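#struct-help
A.M.: can someone run this one for me? Single chain, 238 residues.
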Amino acid sequence: MNKTQFRSMLEEKGIILNETQMKQFDLYFHELVEWNNKMNLTAITDEEGVYLKHFYDSISAAFFQDFSKPLNIVDVGAGAGFPSIPIKICFPHLKVTIVDSLNKRISFLQHLANTLQLSDVSFFHDRAETFAKEKEHREKYDFVLARAVARMPVLAELCLPLAKVGGVFLAMKGPEVMNEISDATKAIATLGGEVVDNKSLLLPFEESTRHFVFIEKTKKTPKQYPRKPGTPNKQPLQ
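D.P.: on it. Structure tokens below:
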């Protein structure tokens, strides 16, 4: 996907990018590649690949979720900033928090936010399990995002405690998602969530399936969750 296709295919979906935003994506690409020489941020470093599999793929959440109104968003395990930074570039009014367990990635993201002149973004070097126990973050977010971080029973325990009651957790997933949802039924209910939608699309050009699982936070998460770091992964709620 070249830059022209990127811009016009987003326009078809009602997302109009101005020159400043296109320049931000160009800077993002170059910073990603440059920093990738020093640390492992992504296996995809060709421009067309980054625009399709990172930028367009991240923004595709906006085809199913209205980001035009003010939202306080947290992105769990964003790695090199996906999906929340591309979404933030398209919708600059959003308030975005990113939590990631690797300090080097947080350094990259802070540098990136400065370079792109993004406001209302904050970064936390922390494990999701401990971050969600902190009073200033627990059940404080309108919208929780995670893309390709862990299987659904684990992901639900890391993400749902951060969503306020009435808020939404969106898990961006690949084609195997139906098995994951069924494995996570008990975990989602235990943590106060309810699956309300599962949308899908084919990523252009490569035709791979992407799923967008929307989980509404219907009641408070019991305070013993998330369990201590590493436990959700080793012993997923069943």
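A.M.: thanks! The chain has one domain: 68-234.
D.P.: also worth noting: The first strand starts at residue 72 and ends at 76.
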